[in-house]
Amino acid sequence: MDLRVIRAGFIGSGFAAKFHYDALQRVFSARVAFSGAYSPSAERLREFTAERSLKAYDNLEALIDDSDVLHICTPPVTHEAIVIAALKKNKHVIVEKPFTGYFGDGSPEFNGDKFPKQQGLEHAVKSIQNMLEAERQSEGRIMYAENWIYAPAIQKEREILQKTSAQIIWMHGEQSHSGSHSMSYGQWKLSGGGSMIGKGCHPLAAAIYLKHVEGKARNGNAIRPASITARTHAITRMPSYQDEGYLRTTYKDTEDFAMLHVMFEDGTIADIFASELVLGGVHNWLEVNTSNHRTICQINPNTSMQSYTPAEAHYKDIYVVEKTETKQGWSSISPDEGWFAGYQHEMDAFYKFAAQGGDIESDSKLAADVISVIYAGYVSSEMNGKEVAITIL
């Protein structure tokens, strides 16, 4: 069978663009042809394109015209305008996390600790509405780049739910580690929040997705989130925090811990934790308790490979796992981190859709639910955990 050629364009040239490019090397559902990349940072663009023999565009519109699928790998504050521009030209877009959000009022004195969170919720919902409306008027589709959805463990649980007609009763999960690589992370005006949006979006998306799957399997309609109770804390910014140098402490006006209690339309629940306070590498997991089975999706770490060395120097040139503080002693090595995290499965699924049509597992409806829940969560946290209704779009 001759595979359809799909032209891929990258908007952005940082960390996300690099792992998108790497994941595309394992796409088998289409023939990927790289049209090139655009970035407002000329130096980073040259570095990104030269290393991969890609064409460097100095004009965003030209890149959109020359591509079938656009990878939106830019800061989330830019997503709405770029997504709408591409959809107006009937192009598909793969949009990195967070999908959108509220990034302040543009004033120098803006502080994420002090603004009314209802204002952030209203702005984020309006941004979502703008992108959903652009999608409705376009031949292009929004594909939400939430790799957790395509992680093999989550997709296996999808199969189990569909074949057993189980009711999900309670889920709980977490993404935590010792702090982000990005120095812009921790400033609300750049990241749209802290741990709740930066970490919590992953297990939250997986939990919402599985309720979508359950509802469609049982009665044809996704089960959507209805309300949230949330708390956030800035532990490493407390005067009493004892800093021993292991956790990142450069957060300016965002939280480093978040706890979300989500109730769905059918009365079932999910509890999500997210933080920058965990040593020992990335902690990614989701437990699913249902009416006829229980599943623990252990994305990272997992026990597929464990290795011991008495001295870290022996593993100087060995990649072990993301964000581990030391290689000495026992390590849960990830022999193919991208595979367990779902990156290559995600891109293959998106390009299969672009080439052949069908359904998108991680679509704009899921993206809308995730952001609506998170910003309602910030409103709840501002009120010390009061229950807040979630806007469903």
Automatic annotation (TrEMBL):
SUPFAM superfamilies: Glyceraldehyde-3-phosphate dehydrogenase-like, C-terminal domain (SSF55347), NAD(P)-binding Rossmann-fold domains (SSF51735). Coiled coil: none annotated. GO terms for molecular function: nucleotide binding; oxidoreductase activity. The keyword Oxidoreductase applies. It holds the Pfam family GFO_IDH_MocA. Keywords: Oxidoreductase. Residues 6-100 form the Gfo/Idh/MocA-like oxidoreductase N-terminal domain. Belongs to the Gfo/Idh/MocA family. This is Gfo/Idh/MocA family oxidoreductase. It comes from Pedobacter psychroterrae.
